[in-house]
Amino acid sequence: MKPSPREIIFALVLLAIPMAAWHLEFAPRQRRQKELKQQIQAKQAKLDKLFEKKQLSGAIGDLRDQIAEGKEAVAIFRSRLPDEKDIDQIVREVWRLAKSNDLSPTSLRTIPPRKNKQFTSPDGPHGEQPVLIQIEGDFNGLYSFMLDMESQSRIMRIRQMTLKAPENTHTGMVSATIEFSIFFERKKGQSQWTAKI
After folding, report:
1. How far apart are CA 170 and CA 138, in angstroms?
2. CA distances to 113, 123, 126, 148 from 189, in Å
3. Cβ atoms 114, 132 nearer than 8 A
4. pTM of the prediction?
5. Domain 84-189 is classified in which CATH homologous superfamily?
6. pLDDT for 111-140, tens place per residue?
7. Which residues contact 147 (CB under 8 A, 6 or more apart)?
8. Fewer CB in 10 Å around end: N or C, the chain?
9. Burial (CB count <10 Å: 0-12, 13-18, 19+), residue 16
């Protein structure tokens, strides 16, 4: 059977409807979806960059907080470091501490620093002055003296201590030789030691 022209036209219209729908509806919608996906990916990339910047700025903020805490700690330690010229006052204070604990200081003198036993650099902003004290007295007084030394506001370090019981004395009496260091802040050329942060 041969199709009539009417049937051919009908078949062509039926084929044209999906093709027209494809070109007029589905193809533009796919292009729009592709564009939207590209826009979403671009915005997501921007968000990722902003998130990284926020994390970085948060890390920078944390670093700033840590630097501020470090500066506070340095300020606290600096307040505990006397000037180089104030070492003699600290030595007199140690003498008074020994006397106030019923000890008899027989000798108190500064000694030259030993290069291999120093905690500070000779070229740095801080220094240490070793001091040698010889005292005699009751052990309880020596113990109280050591506690008082420990509670001083200045930074000091006991390097060496030798205890002896003096001969021909009653028990409880001791003779002590104590070597300690007083840490101080050098003032000359201070600008060369200040770091810019």
Report:
1. 10
2. 21, 10, 12, 34
3. no
4. 0.55
5. Ribosomal protein S6/Translation elongation factor EF1B (3.30.70.60)
6. 887 777 777 777 777 788 888 999 998 889
7. none
8. N
9. exposed
